[in-house]
Amino acid sequence: MAVPASFAVQVESLGPGPGSLFSPTLISDNGEVIVGGARELTSSFKVGVWTQATALVVLDAGTPDKFYPFRMSADGSRIIGRQSDVGPNLLEQGIVWDVPAGTRTVVGLLPGAILSTATGISADGSTVVGGSYGPTAGAYQAYRWTQAGGTQPLAPPAIFFMAPQSVNGDGSVIVGSTIPNFTSSDSRAAIWSATGGLSTVPGLPNALSEVTGVSNDGLSMVGLVDDPAFPSGVFYYSAGLGVLPVDLGNPGLTPTTPPQISADGSTILVQPTGPPVKWSPATGAETFGPSGFWFATSISSDGSTVAGYRAPFPTSNDRQAFRWESSGQVVLLDPITPGETSIGNAISGDGSAICGGSVAAFSIPVGQGARWRTDGTIGESYCGPAVPNSTGASAELRLSGSNVIDQGELVLLGSGLPSFTFGFFLVAPNSAFVTGVPGSQGNLCLGGAIGRFVGPGQVQQSNGSGEFSLTVDPRALPSPLGTFSAPPGENLYFQAWFRDANPNGTSNFTSGATVRFY
To answer: Alpha-carbon distance 395 to 411, whole Å?
Structure first.
């Protein structure tokens, strides 16, 4: 399996930069909301929320308490975690933070409890689960919280512990394991449903076991079981197929972390003592065999794409994020700054984006969050729609390829142009809005020293569909004073000029597009 040195994909810095830490660990289904720990080196641990519209915002309740994010709803509107009191009591409480409303709610404190933690939230954000702890040793009770019903005990008197992927999409199914008492390690895989209460996994042997994940519809699960019929120690369950042993493709492989299941229930992700393994009832085990250490962190909703990081060996600080494509290709994701380490912590549900950290050294608690977008387009459009041309449409400029300077793979694409007309692309350090450009019906959206891509092979002619494109090297961009390299961490602005007859000979411009380079 080929592993290229780099991949044409946009990387974005999510902040905050030197002297601070933002380590994204959660991403919404559409990749537009990213959440993680955020703090200054001298401050308490807070939660940072990044969106395209707001950039990085730190959720701060006005107290010195620490808030650790665990999971969030599919749209990123609700975040759950644990708030730790930094005072003498060292109290911990489960918290639901409603991001749009700017409010937080303490959850999990059943009668007589003094501590709680929130460990799971349904995809729709309606249901939170976790544990409620009393003042005496072993006084633990699982709970289920909803906005309407508040905190309710779950499956008493059983001692029920939640799985890492503990709740289905609407909160009607919760999975994990039970033990007979707090001194016992004799766990059994367990399912709780709103209609049937607590039950076992149908067909699973009566052996040490636990459910580690459940699909959004609640009909498929993955877990661990200690039984000779399951050599890898991993089982898959679906309502239609029953319990199946998971063959990891190599005898002797066993999981090192709890197996995950895709939201649609089709695929499970296992991190064994070797490269990651995807497994489904239809295809069996899929893996890859590059040298070094590869650690998978998350899987897309349809099970096709995996995020993680690689390193020469498990304890190495030399780490780089990767994306395991649906085609089987493994591609490496460049850090924001060459020479940094990067980790892919989470993948969006639709597989279009990966979030993680990019820091100078993994052992140093400073750095910036990163998002890698793989949906084909990069940057942002502005100054549009353009003045309509002779086709009656407004011409548009889009960017694709990569904004990583050293990759030299930025693609400029003009569309909505008249067929078979000549034009060329422009680049500038600033944006502007200039009307009444001599000889043109359009508006110029660039400011400062404007460079023109008019070198050999760079002047374009649109095709019959009214499009032309050019791949350019950000290390050799034109300006009135010669070529220059895109400055790291700064935006550049692009536009295209083209000839037109509307109805007489004239010219026009596309909309503008801008992207930040790293």
So the answer is: 17
The gap from C-alpha 438 to its chain's centroid, in whole angstroms, comes to: 46
Which H or E element spans position 191? strand 188-193
Cα angle 186, 188, 193 (rounded to 5 degrees) comes to 145
Give the span between the Cα atoms of 190 and 84, in whole angstroms: 29
Q: How far is CA 202 from CA 218, 280, 284, 408, 490, in A?
A: 14, 19, 22, 55, 57
SS3 category, 180: coil
Where does residue 114 fall: left (phi above 0), alpha (psi -120 to 50 degrees), or beta otherwise? alpha
Q: Phi/psi of residue 204, each to 5°?
A: -80, 135
d(CA 442, CA 426): 14
Q: For the chain, 518 residues long, give each residue's pLDDT as a single digit of tens.
A: 333 333 456 888 887 755 567 889 999 999 999 999 887 655 567 888 999 888 888 887 666 678 888 999 999 999 999 888 755 566 788 999 999 998 889 999 898 888 999 999 999 999 999 999 988 767 889 999 999 999 999 988 889 999 999 999 999 999 999 999 888 889 999 999 999 999 999 999 999 999 999 999 999 999 999 999 999 999 999 999 999 999 998 888 899 999 999 999 999 999 998 789 999 999 999 998 677 789 999 999 999 999 999 888 777 778 889 999 888 888 888 887 777 788 899 999 999 999 998 765 444 445 688 898 876 668 889 999 999 999 999 999 999 888 888 888 899 999 999 999 999 999 999 999 999 999 999 999 999 999 999 999 999 999 999 999 999 999 999 999 999 999 988 999 999 999 999 999 999 999 999 998 98
Under 8 Å CB-to-CB from 491, ≥6 apart: which residues?
514, 515, 516, 517
Strand, helix or coil at 406? helix
Instruction: Please report which residue ranges of 269-421 form alpha helices under DSSP H.
Output: none
**Distance from C-alpha of 269 to C-alpha of 260, rounded to nearest angstrom:** 5
CB atoms within 10 A of CB 98: 15
- Distance, in Å, from the CA atom of 399 to the CA atom of 514, rounded to the nearest integer, reads 8
Domains of the chain, CATH where assigned:
161-267 (no CATH), 378-516 (2.60.40)
Torsion angles phi and psi, residue 428, rounded to 5: -150, 160
Q: What are phi and psi of 323, to 5 degrees?
A: -130, 120
Rounded Cα distance between 73 and 50, Å, is 15
The rounded distance, in Å, linking the Cα atoms of 154 and 178 is: 12
Q: In what order do the strands lie in the sheet with 33-40?
A: 20-27, 33-40, 46-51, 55-59
3-state class (DSSP) for residue 405:
helix
Edge-to-edge order in the sheet of strand 293-299 = 293-299, 306-311, 320-324, 330-333
